[in-house]
Amino acid sequence: MEQNDKLRIKKGDRLKGKIALVTGIGSGIGKGCALMFARQGAIVVGTDLNAPGAQNTVAEAAEEGLTIHFSQAVDLTDESQVNKMVDQVVAEHGALHILVNAAATAVFKWIEELDYAEWQLTLRAELDSVFLVCKAAWPHLKASESGSIINFASANAYMALDGSPALAHCAGKGGVLSLTRQLAMEGGPFKLRANTISPGLIVTGATAPVIEQPGFLDAVMAKNMLKRLGQPEDIAWCAVYLASDEASFVTGADFSVDAGAIAW
Ligand SMILES: NC(=O)c1ccc[n+]([C@@H]2O[C@H](COP(=O)([O-])OP(=O)(O)OC[C@H]3O[C@@H](n4cnc5c(N)ncnc54)[C@H](O)[C@@H]3O)[C@@H](O)[C@H]2O)c1
Q1: Angle, helix 129-144 to helix 79-93, in steps of 10 degrees
Q2: Which site from 36, 94, 97, 237 is most exposed, i.e. has the minimal number of CB atoms within 10 Å?
Q3: Region of residue 27 (phi > 0: left; psi between -120 and 50: alpha; otherwise: beta)
Q4: Which residues have any ligand 1 atom within 6 Å of their CB?
Q5: What are the pLDDT digits (tens) for 46-96?
Q6: Using CA positions, which residue lies closest to atom 1 of ligand 1?
Q7: How far is the CA of 238 from the centre of ligand 1 (A)?
Q8: Domains of the chain by range and CATH?
Q9: What's the pTM?
């Protein structure tokens, strides 16, 4: 059996009855989390700027007999769109227990080529979007008395990868890591947990073109103790744990899911 199939097939009830908002369901890790959460019994509401991508995920879920709710494209860097979307989720489903912030985009350039507009675009898409969704969802997650926020930092929040022009991305992901620790502290009295996952290189829409670049894969594999690339399901299983009641003592933590890359 292929590694991907082994990671994907399991169905269960780890998240039964929980209402989860997952951003970035149109591709990669967000898509993988939305599908895995639905397989584990959560009521999943997905969002993305890319409506066809999101609809494709909804259709894939339906092929497995699962439901993922998606209504319309939302730009998560737009405060009013974010607030409206979160209000709608709570109006339709009555509560919110889990927030997975997987949507992001970044401009990858060396400092000498990266202009200020690209720097700002990256920080808006990687950091502001996470702040806006967390802020809009906060009162509802707090009210649930068992809320869980899962944000995405990165191996790049800890280390520079030789050959990768990731300046703005490193700043954005360092920001997400720190922001989430502060959220954990503010949420603690309300049993609202906030954690980050720091993926290594995962094959997604964002990384597929980069992996093709000469030398890049060699640099990644040199750091990976487990000599394979990651799949969205590798990350989604970690997110299932962090969202579940089994993780009720876990907050302010960062989970490296990176084949050992930052431990080396
Ligand atoms: N793939 C990796 O190797 C890797 C490694 C470390 C961290 N991460 C992080 O994991 C998360 C998911 O990454 P991915 O590789 O799956 O990305 P991806 O590009 O494959 O998917 C991201 C999705 O987010 C959506 N999106 C982007 N900006 C948006 C916005 N403003 N509003 C609404 N939707 C928006 C995109 O349309 C896309 O569908 C990101 O935070 C990324 O930084 C990924």
Answers
A1: 30
A2: 94
A3: beta
A4: 24, 26-30, 48-50, 53, 74-77, 102-105, 125, 129, 152, 154, 199, 201-202, 204-207
A5: 999 999 999 999 999 999 999 999 999 999 999 999 999 999 999 999 999
A6: 202
A7: 17
A8: 3-256 (3.40.50.720)
A9: 0.97
